[in-house]
Amino acid sequence: MRSTLVSQFGDPRQVIALVDAERRAPGPGEVEVALSLAAINPSDLIPVTGAYSARTTLPFVPGFEGFGTVTRIGAGVQSPKPGDRVIPIGASGLWQEYLIRPSEWCFALPDDIGDADAATCYVNPLTALQLIEALRQQFGSLERRRIGVTAAGSAIGGMLMKLLAGAGADAIGIVRSKRSADRLTRDVPGRAVLGDERSLPELRLDAIIDAVGGPFAGELILRTLEPGGAFIQYGALSGVPVPQGAIQARPDIRFSFLWLRSWVHSAGRAAVEAAFAKSFEGLRSGLFSSRIAEIYPLSRLDEALAHQADPGRDGKLLLDPRC
Ligand SMILES: NC(=O)c1ccc[n+]([C@@H]2O[C@H](COP(=O)([O-])OP(=O)(O)OC[C@H]3O[C@@H](n4cnc5c(N)ncnc54)[C@H](OP(=O)(O)O)[C@@H]3O)[C@@H](O)[C@H]2O)c1
């Protein structure tokens, strides 16, 4: 079967190989899923670079998000059944034609969720919901709270802006380009500001939800957060950690991390099912819809990865493992 493989850490465009892999039968308690579409997310590529080398075992098949149809089930599996559309989660491996997962890590996908929505219904919607929940735990009501969202032009940034506005917060999307600021102003509620010297001195924030890290996050912590505020980090698109000096200089701020994988592995199946139900609701209303820039056959992975690295990319890329 068509598959991908990372055998050494490095630049994703150089180390993710297209390979012909053996298709094995599901064992007891396992199901085989024929994958229909998989997403390319920043979080798929970070482990490939070796950033988490201590907890990443080589070789591995990348891809944490996508959906497919159950083709075969192993002994003892009651549900799902062959023919069911499912979202297999809990481990990487979706950038290939067929995936074997334990049945308890497959979640039912309602028929009315279209293919592109199905391929993007997990990572960003569930993380956005958890980030809002973390804010609620600190502040209670988010009504009129001034919440900054960095990299607000990202797929999850747009979801966060909509969720915050829906909760009555003053949502402020902080972006790095005028193009993104204009698009944000047009497409999502809340305000958009450029993260530059003109805007920063005027920002007064109760909380920041950050996916950028690096010196920029340090500036935001030192210059924009009100005493008693919150800083939640959930990404590091700059490739650089948040400076420790900035964290130490603000003992009045509550710092935390949020990683979807940790939550999914500790929350229990019922909580994950409830979160998926909210994701489907949000997809039906448009709240969680991601703009799709292009769908590539898996056999054209090179082109897809080049497009993913293009700073002008305008939306999510999906892979079709069937071709
Ligand atoms: N912790 C978790 O469990 C978790 C879960 C989901 C997502 N995330 C993180 O969330 C982030 C966004 O994911 P996504 O899927 O929404 O990504 P995406 O849709 O691919 O969007 C990436 C966008 O972020 C902006 N960006 C990239 N580098 C930037 C930088 N250095 N400074 C400012 N903006 C930058 C760019 O927007 P412009 O067009 O405005 O330049 C780019 O288009 C990633 O870091 C990802 O790892 C974490």
Question: What can you see in these coordinates?
Answer:
- There is one protein chain.
- The protein is α/β, with parallel strands linked by helices and 323 residues long.
- The chain has 2 domains: 2-120 and 290-320, Quinone Oxidoreductase, Chain A, domain 1 (Alpha-Beta Complex), CATH 3.90.180.10; 125-259, Rossmann fold (3-Layer(aba) Sandwich), CATH 3.40.50.720.
- It has helices at residues 12-15, 42-49, 115-119, 123-139, 155-166, 178-187, 214-224, 244-248, 260-267, 269-285, 301-308; strands spanning 2-6, 16-20, 30-40, 66-73, 85-88, 98-102, 106-108, 146-150, 170-175, 191-194, 205-210, 225-233, 254-257, 292-297, 316-320.
- Helix 4 crosses helix 5.
- The protein is globular and about 60 Å long.
- The model has no long low-confidence stretch (mean pLDDT 97).
- NADP nicotinamide-adenine-dinucleotide phosphate binds next to helix 2, helix 4 and helix 5.
- NADP nicotinamide-adenine-dinucleotide phosphate (NAP) is lined by residues 41-43, 123-124, 127, 151, 153-156, 175-177, 180, 211-212, 234-235, 237-238, 258-260, 316.
Brief characterization of the structure:
The mean pLDDT is 97. Helix content is 33%, strand content 27%.
- Look up the CATH topology of the largest domain: Quinone Oxidoreductase, Chain A, domain 1
Largest sheet: 7 strands, mixed
Number of domains: 2
Q: Low-confidence runs (pLDDT<50, min 5 residues)?
A: none
Number of helices: 11
Query: Based on DSSP secondary structure assignment, what is the total number of beta strands?
Result: 15
